[in-house]
Amino acid sequence: MAEVIPAVLPKNYEELKSAIDHVRGVVPVVQLDICDGVFVKNMTWPFYSAGSSGGDFMDNDLDQHFRAILNEQEGLPFWEEVDFELDLMVVDAVENFDIYTKLGARRLVFHIEAVGNIEEFNNFLEGIDTYVRDVVEIGVAIDTTTKIETIFPLVSNVDFVQVMGIEQDGFQGEEFDVRCLDHVRTLKEKYPELVISVDGAVSLETAPDLIAAGATRLVSGSAIFNSGDIIGTVEEFKQI
Hints:
Blueprint lengths: L2 E6 L4 H11 L5 E7 L28 H7 L12 E7 L7 H5 L5 E5 L6 H10 L2 H6 L1 E6 L17 E5 L14 H12 L4 E5 L7 H7 L3 E4 L1 H4 L4 H10 L1
Parallel strand pairs: 1-2, 1-8, 2-3, 3-4, 4-5, 5-6, 6-7, 7-8
């Protein structure tokens, strides 16, 4: 049975809190999509204006709850009941790694198309403090348009790979891209023990094929939150 992870794409803190409230006690982990409006066209919490590149991250227009969390004045919504997986669809995830770890997430996902030079990124992964690696799982996401071989040099330094199931990242309700199945199959064949997550267009219809291909985690947003029966839909996913 694959792990089911609801994905939240919140425009603001209120949307984030409401979504988490609906699934707390139902699943142990929720994915929070963080989009800067630069790496992807969409923009989500904690950003009020597009991007954080070109200057000090903390000088940007950011949500006050985000700043309070970084200052340990509060935590992510319902953090005592839910663990978080941050999908960092941003141009500066490496540069601001220390900031994102302060949010208290259990997992962080970097996008291979956003990290720049692969060798330098691999050096960054190797240099992450042992204490951090003990408490935070590190994953790398890959788009359907990127050759799967690109990720091979990184596998030994990550805890999981996230295969994107859509061509345009940063949005929910997009059409399923069947090329992701080849990505999953290739990874499963080459790295049988690797944890493979799929994010994007994961539905009750596409999930069986993804699991058959080798996916071990299913990240789903609109198929769960727009279903009209969030808890029931999560349970249906769990039964696949």
